[in-house]
Amino acid sequence: MKKSFIAVVAALLVIAGFTGCGVSNKSIIRMQKLEENVGSPTTVEELKEAIEKYQKRVADVQIAQGQIGIWYKMLGTRYVDKKMYGEALKCFQEALKIYPDNQNLYYWVGVCAGYMAKASLDYNASGTNEVRYNYLKLAEDAYLTAIQIDDRYVRALYGVSVLYVWYLDEPEKAIPLLEKALTIEKRNIEAMFVLARAYYMTYDFDKAVAMYDKIISTTKSEKTKANAEENKKIVLDESYQN
Q: Which of 23-32, 46-55, 141-150, 198-207 has the lowest mean pLDDT?
């Protein structure tokens, strides 16, 4: 079902691409004249009629563009389901051309760019993987843009914090974002783990221990509790050595 959906939507988007690119204004006007039976209006009545017909066409185009944006988002999420993050990224970028203020699209760009960074190996063994770094910065930019649009968007707050803690080695930037996320979703265990790690990386051992204690008292999962206990012990051991 998903394969057929992707094939149909992709075909529709290809058609939309061909009809929307490389066509001159004169060609469009000629087609509109044929379809709407609008020639070269001169009288008041003819001009009014032409304006009314073309206004309806503008509305049709706006509706069509909006639908194409929705299709691109749907196709992108289907690609994400299939773990085809490169193709998904292209779809979300196209959707953003139509919906540039949609925080969800920026979030998905961040997700896909993050996965593409993981897949970007240093094939030339140069020691500086610029492709990976560029994907990470794209992910960061996308998440931050989503947060600018909606500063209570927890998934974006969490996503960019993961980048700061695990990939960009900037844990101090993650701390205020995760603290805010936990004021919105107080029982977000994943955010607690990343925040505890950020405290640990910035040598704030007391706060790290307190956060692991909070995880232990919040979670009902024995596995999660054991993981928090183990991490807490590591923090305590290092704090005693300092």
A: 23-32
